[in-house]
Amino acid sequence: MKTCTALHCSLLMGLLMVPSLAAPAMATARPQSPAIAKEGAPADAPIAQHQRDLLHLAWQAASAMPLEPHAKSRSRAQETVALACLNMDQPSLARKFARGIADWRRGSVLADYAHYCADHGHADEALAHITLAEEVADNLGRDEAQQEWRRDTIWLKVASTYAELGRTADAERTHARIEQGSAQAFDAGWAATLTRSVELVERDGLERELQRLDGIVASGGSGEAYSAVAICCRLFDKFYADEELRERIGLRVRTRDSKLPRDLHMSILLEVAKIAARHGDAERGREALAEAAEFLRQSELAPEYRFGYVPVMAEIRHMVGDHGAAEGELEQGLESYHEQRDSFRQTKRAEILRPFAEAFHVIGNRDRAVDLYGMVVEEGMENPNSRPRAHDVSETCLSMAKHGFEPTRELMARIREIVEGLGDPW
Fold this sequence. Notes:
Distance between the termini: 40 Å
Strand order of the largest sheet: 1-2
Structural class: mainly alpha
Shape: globular
Low-confidence stretches: 1-29, 31-35
Helix content: over 70%
Mean pLDDT: 87
Oligomer: single chain
Largest sheet: 2 strands, antiparallel
Number of helices: 21
Radius of gyration: 22 Å
Number of strands: 2
């Protein structure tokens, strides 16, 4: 087995753990205080009943897909539901769902659950589920048909959790098992795992981290560059209140994404605008949004992909206080969608419309959100096959649950009817 190059280890270890002065290439993990350790498993946080119902419906739809011939689609959809549960502080439900995933993604979600436990002080529960995740990864290693990045995704998450628990030696041991090629692809999950440790970076170690990121962007592959820029965005958010650091990190974010494909470049620009807006900096939020709009105008993205940015940009306009402009942008985007609807693939229509429903909910126009969610549900039924129907209705349930949107009684009944009616032909 190949081990990580020095550069790759610097990316992983230097960003998953705070660097020590004695060994710049390695690091010291977060020390865990026995005084705050919690027994047992973390409990689900209180949420509205309709949100919990929607999570169960999303899982039911995803799990309705038969393993043959749709094993990959089924597991991917199930993983999405389980991760949504974690993001909504429903760890018990996430753990239950993870055990129902048939392939390597079970190990990936179990590792995510373990990290959630570690982050919330449940060390014993975290270690128990690290063991379960490692078992999945070890089994993948014995299967020559499995691609290395799947196993390495689990190892990366396990190492991150060991670091969170303060188990430096275990984190280093796990990192040594990762193949260097696994970091080369553009993978949002991989990058997100690396960014977890940004909270461990303090001001006095920031310059060292920035220099490492500079080196990765300069000499690493495009996948590594994406991860480095994503980490810069998290650092930009963390140190936003410090004007000097904000400018230094922001400059790196703006000038270090030249290796990225246009869609990822656009996502970084929008993330910068969101960060400024979340910090109440309307002026900088508008500036970043204008830069993103100009980049989108000059891009050559297909219309079905360009539409996806309209609701995101409208939500940011709402965040910076431009409420009328946000709603107007959404209505204009919808008008364009209806003009071009017939040119889009059936399987893309619900995907295009769903973010518009979310955005109208976010800006406070419930009536419009209700109408659009109803439209999204029906667009997902246009395809005669149940696999795309299951995917669309699962995604729509998750969208409503995550955004706290309560469907009308009629809409909920329609969703249940669709989920219960999934079947041949797939």
